[in-house]
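Target chain:
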Amino acid sequence: MGGEFSPEWLAFEEELGYRPRLQGSLEDISRQWDSLLGDLVAKFEFPPPATGVKSEDRSINGNGITVRIYTPESAMGSDEALPLCVYAHGGGWAMGDLNSDDAQCREICKTCNVVVVSIDYRLAPAYPAPIPLDDCVEGFRWAVANANKIGASADKSFICGSSAGANLAIGIALKILDSERPFKLLGLILLAPPTVHPEAISEKLRPMYVSYEENSDTAIDTPSAMEGFRHAYGAMPTDPYCSPLLHSKLAELPKTYIAICGKDTLRDDARLLAAALKEGGVPVRQTEYEGMPHYFWTFPSKHLAEAATRFQADVTKNIEWILSDSEM
């Protein structure tokens, strides 16, 4: 196996009473997730969202795409144009909404003093690939085109995403890179990203792509769950926007921060993307959280509080790096 769970995570499991594992079809996963959320609400106290942030939902087109705009209250009424963060939520391309990553968006908005635009893209399987990514690209373009109207600067934009949202974040950047010049994007913040379909991994990289087997006993996002999510999403394994590790222009991407969960099915997805970007000369920073499974920072346990605080501090520090003139 790929190492032991961290003591903090094991203490959380003991507190919860079981190891939460998502498995099977999307319908199975949805039921398991709802049951887990019910247990979390019953047994734990979720921390309040960050204060000092104003949010507003807006519909941006006739297809039902909504964005949620987060603005630091301290910047209200100011003429200063803040940096712009475009955010894509997680959920396996098939679950989640504006509320699921609301706390993360508020944290980024407040601690980094940026305007955040979170995209409520349409979900698979009702809207399979490439629709979720196309919605995210449209949301990004809307945010950039309207930056001056929401107190942000289009010239200081970056993209952030968690899990499947991190995959979409890379996809947005690559779509923009392939279609628009000049390419204006300061950086990417990728939190536990899936970066390649297992069927599309090259023979050269296969010996380094072992976390599906080594972490098969992991919590939350199991190999079975990834199979269920990918089946629902319906993307071709070799689609370079859905398997961005295969894209030919990775070397043209901007500064990138990658958060890696060491006990995650997707550990090697993240490691291999970091290596490919570095090989192409892209400035990359990465943090690996040893013994932690997917999305560990979102679980409201006292045993995970210190690790979650460290995770958020790392996100903040690396957003500051993205916005700085420093290459490393």
Observations:
- The two ends are 33 Å apart (CA to CA).
